[in-house]
Amino acid sequence: MSGRLPWGPMARLTARRILSAVPVLAAVTLGVFAIAAASPFDPVKAYAGTAGLTASQEHLDQLRANLGADQPLLTRWWDWLTAALTGDLGDSAVLRQPVTDAIAQRLGWSVLLAATAFLLALALGTLLGVLAARHQGGLLDRAVSSLAYTLEAAPPFWLGLLAVWLFALKLRVLPAGGLTDTRSTTVTADQVLTHLALPALVLALSQLPWFVLYVRQGVADALADDPVRGARARGLAPRTVLLGHALRSGLLPVLTLIGSRVPELITGALLVETVFSWPGIAAATVRAATSVDFPLLAALTVLATLAVLAGNWAADLLYGIADPRVGFDG
Question: Could you report how far apart the first and last alpha carbons of the chain are, in Å?
Answer without folding.
Answer: 19
